[in-house]
Write a structure and sequence with these properties.
It is a single chain. By secondary structure, the protein is mainly α. It has 3 domains: 132 residues; 137 residues; 148 residues, no CATH class. The chain has 23 helices and 10 strands. It has a 3-stranded antiparallel beta sheet with strand order 2-1-8. A 3-stranded antiparallel beta sheet has the order 3-4-5. Strands 6-7 form a two-stranded antiparallel sheet. Strand 6 and strand 7 form a beta hairpin. The chain starts with 28 loop residues before the first helix and ends in an 11-residue tail after the last strand. This is Co-chaperone DjlA N-terminal domain-containing protein.
Amino acid sequence: MGGFLFFGLPGGLDFQGFCMSVPVNHLNAAQKKWYANLVVAAILADQKIVKSEIEFLKQIISVIDNPADKKALLSQVETKKASPLVPPPPGIPPQTLAAIYLELCLIMISDSEFDQEERDFLAQIARLMNFSDRYINDLNGWMNTGLEWKKRQQNFLPPEVDLDSGPTWLVSLPAPQREWYAQVMISTILLDREVDSMEMEFLKAAISLVADKGKKNLFLGYIKNRFSPNLEAPPQDFNPAKLVRVMVDVILLIALDDKISVNESTHLERLSKLCSISATQFSALMAWCAQRVEWNNNRNPLIGAVKMAGPGAKEAAPKPKEIFTPRIFECFICGSKEVNHFHLRVGAALVSNLFGRPSFIKEGDLVVDYLRHKIMVCPRCFFASGEKAFFKKEATDKPPVHLQGNFKSQWGHGLDLRKKRFAPFLSFLGAPDPDLEFVKLCFETAAQAQEAMNFNNAYELNWEVAKTRMDEAEVLMRGGQKAEALEQLAHVRHLCEQMMETCRNDLFLMQAAKTLFFLALYREDKPDANRYLNFFMQLGDKGDKLDPNSKAQASKLLPLVKRSFDNKEQFTPSALDGFHPKVEPVKKNKTA
């Protein structure tokens, strides 16, 4: 078992962190200093430092020999003020620059989030490194795949399982449970009877969990003889949620390889049965593991295929047909197999607006109104949605719960009216350049569908309606219909205020409060903005009372809200072009 470790720290059983993968030994002192400053700037890009980043910082600072340079790096971390970004020193091979960029990508997505400030940071770095536009898209596509993989883990993990807690969760386990965990890890690492230096660090960390001298000596014997002990059932009082965490740790360990062997698959299946993990959940975990392995395997070929831009070169922008790939889905409601979907290319450079909603694509001089293609409409029953999950993509796909029950018959009652409304626009279904009035109708119909699903006023569907209304407001504003755009934002405000009163889910509350905060800044309503700033500050004071996901989200949003409040003048209509920062015209130098 070997390979690169992209989310794991040698020296401790932390499988959610990340470690240095750049060949720093091939860099000179000036190049190492530039690299270290770059990493610190990346970590400080979102103005918060998580546990895994602290461990990574220790590794980075250790490569710097000059004490003054070490002190300067620590000062940047303490003050949260990174040094200015500068081009790389001469002599760094293009492949090493690509490896550094991908390492920065891992820092950006280590908390399963990727906000606009982090996007802007990476865009600036990519230009300083002088990569070609196409290659930048490939690099960002790899990162987006990793981000998707990180987010998928929440599909099968209970809310109380905090993957970002690192190895600290093991400390609270009773001795028998720690010993069982150690035996599982030793059994996994020694499956192929080979141990590299990284795995030896993991083995040492596993042994450190064992207090009983007899057990410790037994485990040391396994390691010395490269013998993989049999898996045993966990202690009876082991929390089922934490058993899922154990399973995930083992998967992350196995996923370091460039493939999953038959022996490893059998090992994982045996462990899942001992942990009473259902067959459905095990299949999801194995698919997640396979995605991780494939993602890792794509890294080195991507680095090897590095492409640099020529001096002063300007590449041709990709054509719209390269941004989208037309696909056909099936309607769950009426069975029509003619639902057009414009599949967005992985890594497309999406630009987000004031409210954090992806709005349009900008690559070079090319600007594509992404939102005009977002809503899918069935040409038979005119069911509309921007979510692929609400359409049948594969033969085995099942309709989501919101489309079951009475929804089909309820949607059918309004068919005649929808036919009449869509009649003038049928030629735009699947068209690459749809008319604005048609796009407005698509968004309105999608919002009506969401509202029809929401018969019990569920907060998650209220939030979906709010997002649809925000996206429609963006389309209207970009189409020059400001009054109608502001009308949609009034709907959004009402929905979010309802959520603040009735919702009991912290994650959805934060989304609603964030939206209301930026709406207040846009309206130049300082008291209302201050109200939602106080909401986030009070939420931050809750600390450990929040579940792990809510705590992570709160720690990310609070600095953003504070920073935005301090710079509130940047979010007023006069300072914006629609819902986006104004682009200052380039000043030309006067010639004699």
